[in-house]
Structure formats: structure tokens, C-alpha cells
Amino acid sequence: MTQYLLSVFPDEAAIATTPPEETERMYAQVGAFNEEVKAAGSWVFAGGLHPSSTATVVRAVDGEVVTTDGPYAEAKEVIGGFWIIEAADLDAALAWARKGTVACGAPVEVRPFQD
Amino acid sequence: MTAADLERVYRGERGRCVATLVRLLGDIDLAEEAVQEAFAVAAATWPERGVPPNPGGWITTTARNRAVDRLRREATRGDRHRQALLLHTPDEPEEVGPVRDDRLRLVFTCCHPALAQPAQVALTLRLLCGLTTPEIARAFLVPEATVAQRIVRAKKKIAAARIPYRVPGDAELPERLPPVLAAVYLTFTEGHTATAGDDLLRPDLCAEAVRLGRLLAELMPDEPEVLGLLALMLLTQARAGARVADDGTPVLLPDQDRSRWDRSLVAEGQALVRACLRRGAPGPYQVQAAIAAVHSDAPSGDATDWRQVLDLYDLLLRLTPTPVVALNRAVAVLHVEGPQAALDALDGLPLDRLHLFHATRADVLARLGRARDARAAYDRALALATNGAERRFLRGRRDASGTGTEGAT
Lengths: 115, 409
Known about the structure:
The complex is a heterodimer of chains A (115) and B (409).
Chain A: E1 2-8, H1 12-16, H2 20-39, E2 43-48, E3 56-61, E4 64-69, E5 81-87, H3 90-104, E6 108-112
Helix pairs in contact in A: 2-3
Chain B: H1 3-25, H2 28-49, H3 55-73, H4 80-87, H5 102-110, H6 117-127, H7 133-140, H8 144-160, H9 173-192, H10 203-219, H11 224-237, H12 240-243, H13 263-279, H14 284-297, H15 306-319, H16 323-337, H17 339-346, H18 355-367, H19 371-384, H20 388-401
Helix pairs in contact in B: 1-2, 1-3, 1-5, 2-3, 6-8, 6-9, 7-8, 9-10, 9-11, 10-11, 11-13, 11-14, 13-14, 14-15, 15-16, 16-17, 17-18, 18-19, 19-20
């Protein structure tokens, strides 16, 4: 079994204008998907994140740690949530990712963890 | 045994041997190294002992034994799990039916949708056809380092992300088969009309694609699109001898000397088209093959049943509504309904960047007697064409259209 990170890349600008009932429906879909992953024994961990405006970046530059407000500026997309799942192979992981992207309505990136 | 014997075994058996070793070893690099080593042993021992009765089996067994020896020797590789796997596989790789052929597993791994198409094509040519990295680079006119990097990255991804080594089930096949067919067809079309360089054809690449097509048809005899792809390639390949004039410029289909078509390829392609059409599950490759079959039926360009060609293009456009299909359909419209209808069919197609669009439009405009517009369209086509032979052809056409006067027919 391999563990895969399924990262969600939502359109943050669109989220701000999404009607509440649509957000509710998305939460319900994701909840149902989570239950399915758990029932299949593939669940490791998952979480949704607050918007990237709540992010803070720290980095060590020449031995000094600098703290800055906002998301990591060089990241083109910001992550909005993720699942960590366990799957036999990439096809199995992609099968979960397909269901996941339909449930949350945003693109999902699949990446294997190192052993 | 001659060098040619060994070369023949290499060409014929390497793909199958690598495919089996990938299954046994679970590692593409190890499999390739082991098979390479086995062929080196063959080159050293066969001249004296003769070619064994089952050369492929001999190579596979030798490669496997070498790999086992090496894994035992190299404790640093220390993959006990893999060693255990090796110890538990029977000495002779078991005989498997066509459906379980390891090469089919390998095709689906090489053409997994998680890999980019250039990597799919490079991996397929390397692992299944045995082409070297420099050969693939030459065939597609890309730097060797680029091909090497694509192959290395793809192999790493297959291993790290665990792209499985298996034939997809029936439910997955509709999604998984198209990239396989596309990789083979891309290889063929690149050989058929090279995107760069001076020669129109690259026969080696076409031959590899047809070989892969035959292999797929043997491994998946019940997939109509697989048969359709093979038929399409055979019927196109049949015209190769008539497609290029002695000076290297292309000859358009209506003008080709049909006595130079390869009749046995035509017969084989037509039989495949009939076999697929009986199944009643038309797909894009089958319909394109059917169009090629109609052309191959006509004793001359003038005797072409363009009505049937147009009907088939209508069907193709419904199956794959792309601008390029609409462009090809416009040529059939030209022959059935005349140049004005063809021009109407061309206008508005979003193909401004495609030289063939402007070349077709130029031809239609010339037939309408709009010589100045035709010349401008040929100029546009010339500005976009990258193949030397095609450019020479377009220049000739443009210069010929330049002799007419505006409004004359």
C-alpha cells in the first residue's frame, strides 16, 4: 500500500461569492465522500483549510528566520484542503481523486508519499 | 548464426522479454538491464552453439537468472522483498494466452493517462519496439537529452506513484484505450508526414507503428477501434510509394499513380474495415479507415465515390467534432457540392495556425477563379509549413496559381 496526498486547489475568488446553500451542499457531498473513504479502509487523514489570507510564512534566510504575512508568494495556486489516503496503486488513488473532485468541486492533485 | 539472425531475434522478441521481466522483477530499469545482458550472452554463445529452438524463451530465462544472480550479489540493493518474489516464481516463465500477454500490460503502463503523451510515445517505442534513445530522438527530431529525460522521468513516476502493471478491466477500457491508440497513431502520422526536416516520410517510424498496431490487434482482437486503427495505418501505408514524386514533393491523393499502391496492404486493410464494420460499433479510427477504404476502391481519382466519403465524414464529425475533421470534410464537400460550398464549409474554422487549412482554402479559391486570394492563402500556408517537401509543393502550387488572372477560371 502507498499513501497519497490528494490536495484540493479551489478558486478562492469564486468561493467568496458562492451562495451559502451551494457551500452547504458541497460540505454535505464531501462528508459523504469522507464516509466512503473510511468505510473502504483507505482513510488516513484529511482537513479543510481557512483561506490563504490567514496564512503566515516563516523561512530561514542566512541563519535568520523571517516571518511574513500571507501565503507563500511563489505558489501559483493555494491549497484549500487535502486528504491523505492509502491505496494499492495510482489507479486506485485516482479513482478516489475522481470522486473527491466531484464532491468538492475543485481540482485535486494526486501525489505519492515517499516510503 | 549471423548478426542478422541475432538482430531479427532482438527486433522480434525484445519487447516480449522486457515485458515479462518487468512483471517478474517489478522494475523497468532492472528488466531492461537484464534483457540487455541476456542478449550480450546470446551474442557471445549463439555463434558457437547455434540459436536455441525458442530464442525468446531462452533470452527471458537467461535475463531472469542474471537478474536473480545480481540481486543476490548486490546486497546493497538489499531488496529482500524483491528477492523473495524472484525465488517464488517458477523457473520457466509460464505460457500465457494472448489476453494475458505481458506486452499488453506494458502498453497500458507506458500509455497511462498520468504520463504526458510525448513520454508515453517515447516509453512505448523504447520498451516495446526496442528503439534506442538516439533513435527516438532522431525520429521525432528532438534533442537526445530531451528524450532521455522524458524516459527517466516517466520511469521514476511509474515507480514512485505506483502506476500499475496490468491490463485495465472492461469498465476502464473506454478511458484507457484511447491514449494507447493515440500514441501508436501519433508515431504513424509523424512517420507519414514528418513535422520537420526535408523528407516527407520516415518509413522506419511508420513500420514501428504498424508493428505496434498488429501487436495490439493480436492482443485485443475484439476491440473494433484497435482493428480500425490498424486498417487505417495499412490503407495509408499502401499509398506510400505514390505519395512522393521523384523530386521529393508530395503528390495529392487524386493525382497519385494508383498502380504504385501496395495492393496486398490495400486488401488487408479493406478486409479489416469490413470486419470492424460488421460489429456495428463505429469509432473514429474505423470511420477514418472506411474513408481510406473508399479511396482505395477507386480505380482513379476521378472515379472516387465522394458522396460516400462525405457521408463518412459527416459521421466522423459527429463522433469527433473537431475543426481538423471539418477541414477534411470540406475537401469531400468540394468534390460533391463544388468550390463555393467548400469555401462556406471552411470559413470560420478556427485553424488559422494550420498550414493545411490555408493550403486547402487556397486550392478552393483557385477553383473559384480568385487567383489573388488563392496566392495570399498559399503564402499564409507557406509561412506556417515546417516540412521541407511540403514547402516545395506549396511553392509550386502558389506559383502555378499566380499565372491566372482575377476572375478567370
